[in-house]
Amino acid sequence: MTDTDARPAPPEPRHLLATEGMPAAEIGRILDCAETYVAQNRSRERSPPLLSGRTLVNLFYENSTRTRTSFELAGKRLGADVINMEVAASSVKKGETLIDTAMTLNAMHLDVLVVRHPESGAANLLARKVNCAVINAGDGNHEHPTQALLDSLTIRRRRGRLAGLVVAICGDILHSRVARSNIHLLNAMGARVRVVAPPTLLPADIGRLGVEVHHRMETGLADVDIVMMLRLQTERMSGQFVPSVREYFHFFGLTREKLKAAKPDALIMHPGPMNRGVEIDSEVADDIKRSVILDQVELGVAVRMACLDLLTRASLP
């Protein structure tokens, strides 16, 4: 081969696998980019087809409504060809391994792979095996980075900042990848994070995550700016973590009475799906003045558009 035949090696693909270790400047860049898509999504003027000719594959091994739909909308609004792989109807059900699935998809030359998997580390494994950008849409109990990003965008749009705010994350911390991603991201952005849960629903390493730990809602919610509720993830539980759903709601479900401990204008958040009467009372969830749960759903599309935009332009550091 002559020098003139040589071709430059393709750039290494960029990935979004976790918020742990993500610099504040990078987080801010994603949130700023997402801001530009919020207004576009609310208007009839759609964004230019930045991903025209690009292929996005949603590979979800777990059920999802909000995350998969918002990634699909985000890809289509940017002009990408979007494929939703039905795992239940794929070769996975015939015994194909995750690696074999990855190699098969890699041979099809896709540009972005969005993956949700019940095992922690699955997204990182895929990222080492494919030649495209990989976005972690939730892996086991590990992380769910785009959820934390959209949560932060929701807070920033309502409060104007993240630094200095007191955020209480309440409920099933042990099994929640949303909690882990939010803890890492909020700490990086200068917020003060509390976790509120019974000891049985806290991970053993909670002490190293840089949070305040509370076992009572009354103390955990005292003067907080943001109350972020989490779902009891019974599908990930093996054993008895709470005496009963009724008792759990009595002590840790968010009610109007418990919310009195927070600041009068404290925002109420929930990543969904909600179990009304288990972790949150309907009266609180539907409070139009303080609940931003539907804002989170809307802003998820803008955040995922920003992630697709920046990753395909390889402009993340």
- Backbone CA Rg: 20 Å
The pLDDT mean sits at: 90
Q: What percentage of residues falls in helices of 4 or more residues?
A: 25-40%
Number of DSSP-assigned strands: 9
Shape: globular
Strand content: 5-15%
Q: Terminal Cα separation, in Å?
A: 34 Å
Quickly count the helices.
11
Written as H for each helix and E for each strand, in order along the chain, the element string is HEHEHEHEHEHEEHEHHEHH
Could you say which structural class the secondary elements and strand pairing correspond to? Answer: alpha/beta
Which segments are poorly predicted (pLDDT under 50) over 5 or more consecutive residues? none
- Identify the strand order in the major beta sheet: 7-6-5-8-9
Largest sheet: 5 strands, parallel
